Amino acid sequence: YKAYRSSPAGGGYQVVVADVSELYDQFAYGYETHPLSIRRFLRYGYDNWTPKPHQVFLVGKGVLYHKYRSYLQNPSLYPYAGLVPTYGDIGADMNFVSFLPGRMQAMNIGRLSAWNPSEIGEYLEKIRGFETALKNNVNPTHETDLWKKQVLHIVGGKEIGEQNGLALTMQNAANIISDTSFGGNVTTIRKNTTTPIDQINNQSIDSLVNNGLSIITFHGHATANGFELNLNNPEQYTSAPRLPHFLALGCDVAQIYNLTTNVRTVSERFIRANAGGSVSMIASNNLQFSDFHARYLPGFYHSVSRRNYGQTIGDHHHFIYDSLRTLSLNNPNDTNHFYFHLESMILQGDPALPVYAPEKPDYHIAANKLSASPANVTTAEDSFKLRIIAFNLGKAVKDTVSLKVEHIRPDNSVSTVAILKIPNLYNLDTFQVNVLVNKIADLGLNKYKVTIDDDNQFAELSESNNTGTFELFIYSDNLVPVYPPEFSIVNQQQVTLKASTLNPFKPVARYRLEIDTTELFNSNLKQQTTITSPGGVIKWTPSISYSDSTVYYWRASLDSQVNGDYRWSVSSFIYLANGSRGWNQSHYYQYLRNGFSGLTYGTDRRFQFTKGTNTVFVSNAVFSENGTTPWNTADFVKVMFNGSDVQRLGCQPWGGTVQIMVFDSASNALWKNDPQGSSGAYATCLSNRNVYAFEFPVFDQQGRDDAAHFLDSIPDGHFVLIRNLINLGAYNPSYVNDWKNDVAGAGPTLYQALNAYGFNQIDSFNQTKVFIFFRKKGD
Questions:
Q1: Which of 576, 756, 613 is nearest to 205 (CA)?
Q2: Checking CA distances to 322, which of 48, 467, 486, 580 falls within 20 to 30 Å?
Q3: What's the mean pLDDT in 55-81?
Q4: In this predicted model, which residue has the larger pLDDT, 486 or 337?
Q5: Domains in the chain with CATH codes
Q6: Is residue 334 pLDDT above 80, yes or no?
Q7: Alpha-carbon span 286 to 510, nearest angstrom
Q8: pTM: predicted TM-score of the whole model, two decimal places
């Protein structure tokens, strides 16, 4: 790693590698893991070295100082090859370098929470590939380079008001990062429901991430395990080396300093994922409040896009710290509210990592981003629209660039169609040019040459990607079906098919028409004819006996081939002997004309809902508030849905309960309990408990009957989670043998209902222990 960072490709740094175990003796009187060892060493370097240290990269697992004793009791339990301490509790690496007056930072600092040497090598290969990909290509295109200016904003929030507030912060920041000099193309995906997890946008996020991004910013609720939208499985992404810097503005995302034997935080997983994830992550290991983010994110983007354009991720992290720290010091009413937030913002990753910041603009036109509307142009049209997407793959500059459109006709004559003056092309924009059709000179293959910066006003990263050419074959007018209208209902035999040449003055030509019961036109029932006629309406009455409730496809074309095929225009109708006039789709090829949202229609000719993947994490334990068991926090008795907490413990009375949670298989939504309790369940409590859980007492038959009735009422196809809750301090034991003695009333007993679900292991609930059952009802 030192060799790479010392090389020209790695930045040409003067690199010093310090072994933390030596620093304990040199700067902390031999106290192992004492944070002053690192802080005093860095202060020594700052005071005595030339040049002064600029980037500090801590490499190793960090552990809170008071956790180190637990680690020493049995180091073999933990898979860490070495420890690099953090500073304070709950851990703030930036306090190693905030020794200037006013607690300002003296240098940049970041950390790689590596557990073993191989992870350091893997990270090196990851960032080496990223930094190579970030460099300028010889012939850049939107396919190779546009990702470097793509920014993804993901907005969460529990309630609509909160969502709107978070979205406002993101919009204010988007206005900065999309302007000079970064010129980011910002895509915002926001939560639009009040459910704890919003699954609507999973595929959108996955597609954007896998195509490559420069920056991802999340703003919403989070934990150390994940986010309230679909960013919980970084190992599934395959975007390397097109990797982003990640700002995660939520609570506890960077809680990386706890002792653990095998669990990694979501932030560590994003850094560690070799095929995807991110190269860095800035996130908090503490609580966060949105008023801080409203200052932090726009300020950070200001550093990236304007104030410190061209600097490293560590420089931007450093800048926003010093800026908000100064703001706090100058505010006589400040209560260190911002400072506790700033201390908690941890940069994971190498602070020397670059953020894309080219020195020049790079205007670009691509042939595959030129198109015509309509797509098929004939001499029947007087004009068409040439659609142009123009790009700036480099630095966003506040200026006007010229764009020229030229027409190369089939006889190779050249004319200028238009010259556009485009102001402030920071990323990409779409333009339409009206192109007139010469019905004689334009018949055949036409080329439309589009050149940006045609007057060479700008020095660019590349001058070889400024021109794209669009080829358009303009045909003489073709034959188009007009009657019966497409998807119409026909109820009479002897149907006369009618097609129009569009141009009523077209001279005599020969046309071909076909009809069949398949759009492939390859069945034994197919009929065809050729008709010679002048322009206008071409008519044909097939000699066919139509079968009831059958769809018929018919098509028409000039009887001449282009590139080996006819230019068919296709239509269809259904014959219903006793039907009335109307519209109908009822056949495979008719359905294929539709667009689908949330549905797929495959070659098996079946409609299916698209399927999503969700993660339910459930833990249960015999809980005790008085310390008689080690499971005395709600962390051990909780339910998480796609990374977000949806239930912890339960509500009083504690005599012994079962909690039932229902996951709707169609909408992914959790069933919501009424605040006063529904179906005999406990009411909600502490604002967030039993909101999505239906909790029933099981120490009396009435509570068990209510639970049984609720289970019985759940429709087949939904996913059902059942677990019991035992609080030893108030537990009124009631085991399965008591449940077996219940007498069934109008519905099953709880014991019968659980067995009907397939939970036959309930017979083992004959002592104080917990259980978790999960299944799809009726499956």
A1: 613
A2: 48
A3: 90
A4: 486
A5: 2-135+142-348 (3.40.50.1460), 363-474 (2.60.40.10), 480-607 (2.60.40), 616-776 (no CATH)
A6: no
A7: 78
A8: 0.67
How far apart CA 47 and CA 251 sit, in angstroms, is 36
* pLDDT score at 195: 62
CB 471 within 8 A of CB 450: no
Continuous segment of H or E residues that includes residue 204: helix 202-211
The count of other CB atoms within 10 Å of the CB of residue 731 is 17
d(CA 652, CA 655): 8
Of 393, 408, 329, 403, which Cα lies nearest the Cα of 361? 393
Pair 750, 705: CB distance under 8 Å: yes
What are 607's two structure tokens? 């409609």
DSSP state of 236: G
Q: List the beta bridge partners of residue 575.
A: 490, 550
Q: Which of 465-469, 477-481, 498-502, 608-612 has the highest mean pLDDT?
A: 465-469
Peptide bond into 653 cis (omega under 30): yes
Please give the C-alpha separations between residue 317 and each of 93, 562, 612, in angstroms, as whole numbers: 12, 61, 36
The DSSP-derived string for 722-777 is EEEE-BGGG-----HHHHHTPPP-SS--HHHHHHHTT-GGGGG--SS---EEEEET
Cα 186 from Cα 180, distance rounded (Å) = 13
Contact 163, 153 (CB under 8 A): no
Closest CA to 346 of 405, 426, 283, 404: 283
Q: What is the pLDDT of residues 14-53, one digit of tens each?
A: 999 999 999 999 999 999 889 999 999 999 999 999 999 9
Contact 671, 692 (CB under 8 A): yes
The first and second tokens of residue 74, run together, are 């049995």
Tokens in use for 599?
């549905």
- Nearest-Å Rg of the Cα atoms of the chain is 34
Q: Could you count the other beta carbons within 10 Å of the beta carbon of residue 611?
A: 7
DSSP secondary structure code for residue 305 in this structure: I
Name the pLDDT band for 457 (thresholds 50, 70, 90): very high
Instruction: Determine phi and psi for 353, rounding to 5 degrees.
Output: -65, 135
Q: Which amino acid is at 309?
A: Y
In whole angstroms, give the CA distance from residue 634 to residue 650.
9
Element (H, E) at 129: helix 117-134
Do residues 205 and 239 lie in contact, with contact meaning Cβ atoms separated by under 8 Å?
Answer: no
What pairs with residue 772 in β-bridges?
723
- Whether 341 and 320 have beta carbons less than 8 Å apart is answered as no
| Nearest partner of 101 among 326, 378, 375, judged by Cα | 326
